[in-house]
Structures are given as structure tokens and as C-alpha cells.
Design a protein that fits this description.
By secondary structure, the chain is an alpha/beta fold. It has helices spanning 3-7, 24-33, 48-55, 71-80, 92-98, 112-120, 136-144, 163-167, 183-187, 191-205, and strands spanning 12-16, 38-42, 62-66, 84-86, 105-106, 108-109, 125-128, 151-154, 175-177. It is globular and about 45 Å long.
Length: 207
């Protein structure tokens, strides 16, 4: 799938960190049932790739690999079944290497200079991170004038309460957030709660 197609699936991409790979499939199924098919599983735990492999088997799910820092991680995620990769930043080395990967990369940027560097490498679909501490919706709105063709998925400090201020912007396609899958709900295997949170978010944030 293209990044455009992935970013158009719902108003948000669920960002989750999974410590027990056995949680991956039921967690993903709950998010999909709630209307959030795009799930970014961060590569922050030793079970992340196993979790991606399990989550990718859930019907209707589109799994991403987050916190990708190099080409080897992108390749490993693709082999595990990920449909896209996300990075917190964007070095020239990573941007060059990712062009030949099997799955598309959504690179992270914060500044106009980083955005220009991404454009030089052919990337115009970007993650704005960390969104809230880097200026929030006002910063993304300001970037829209000089970079009209760039589309964003802001993440970092996004909540159900502040998400509308981002989604109303013409250059924001979706937001990324971890509020859809709270750690305590995951540890308690409370998949019903996660489905309810996802369903409520989609209802509140659909454009």
C-alpha cells in the first residue's frame, strides 16, 4: 500500500508498544473492530518483530513498524509482515537506504530544514514529531504555506482532546496516538476497552 492509502484509512494510526507478543493479535483485532486498521508497532521491545508477525495475520489490519532507525530494521519489519515503516527522525543515510526497501517509509521531521532534506530525497509524506512539544498544530499550519504539497501525520503528545486541532488542517491526513491502547488495558487484556476507545475516536474525529 502507498502511504497516501494508509494515511487515509482512518483519522488516526494507533501507536502501540507490545512487550508480550501474545497480545499482538487480539489487540490489533480490537483496534480493527473499532475502525482503526492502521497499527504502528514500535521496535522498542525484544518481542516487537514477533508481535508484528502476529498482528499482520489479523484480517483488515495494516501493520507498520515504528522507531525504525536503519535499513536493517525496515527490512526485518517487512519480512515480518509490516506494510510500512515509521522513523522518529530522518538522516540522509536512512532516507537514501529506505528508497530501495520493500515497504514505504514515513520519516519523522520537526523543522523546515529537515523537511527540505526529506523533499530532496523524494519524501513528501512525513511524520511531524514530537508534535506537541515542537509547536503543535500551529507549527504544522505554518509549514503548509511554503510546503503546500507535503502531507503530515503528527505524533507525540496527541490525545483525543487535541487531535481535532491537527485534523482540521489541510496538510494533515491523520494523527498518530498511543491513547487508543493504554498500557494498563494491554496488560489486563482488556480488548473490549480498546475497541471502545477506537470506536469513540473514529466517531469523534472522522472528517
Amino acid at each position: 500500500m502507498t502511504l497516501d492509502a494508509i494515511m487515509a484509512l482512518s483519522p488516526m494510526i494507533a501507536v502501540v508498544t507490545i512487550r508480550d507478543a501474545r497480545h499482538a493479535a487480539p489487540l490489533t483485532a480490537a483496534l480493527v473492530a473499532g475502525g482503526v486498521p492502521a497499527v504502528e508497532i514500535t521496535l522498542r521491545t525484544s518481542s516487537a518483530l514477533e508481535a508484528i508477525r502476529a498482528a499482520a495475520t489479523v484480517p483488515g489490519a495494516v501493520i507498520g513498524a515504528g522507531t525504525c532507525l536503519n535499513r536493517a530494521q525496515i527490512d526485518a519489519a517487512a519480512e515480518a509482515g509490516a506494510a510500512f515503516a515509521v522513523s522518529p527522525g530522518a538522516t540522509s543515510t536512512l532516507l537514501r537506504a529506505a528508497k530501495g526497501a520493500a515497504i514505504p517509509l514515513l520519516p519523522g521531521i520537526t523543522t523546515a530544514s529537515e523537511l527540505m532534506a526529506a523533499l530532496e530525497h523524494g519524501y513528501d509524506r512525513l511524520k511531524f514529531f514530537p508534535a506537541e512539544s515542537a509547536g503543535g498544530a500551529a507549527a504544522i499550519k505554518a509549514l503548509g504555506a511554503p510546503f503546500a504539497k507535503v502531507r503530515f501525520c503528527p505524533t507525540g503528545g496527541i490525545t483525543l482532546q487535541n487531535a481535532p486541532s491537527y485534523l482540521v488542517l489541510g496538510n494533515v491526513d491523520c494523527v498518530g496516538g498511543s491513547w487508543l491502547a493504554p498500557e494498563d488495558a494491554i496488560q489486563a487484556a482488556d480488548w473490549g476497552r480498546i475497541e471502545t476507545l477506537a470506536r469513540a475516536a473514529v466517531a469523534a474525529l472522522a472528517k
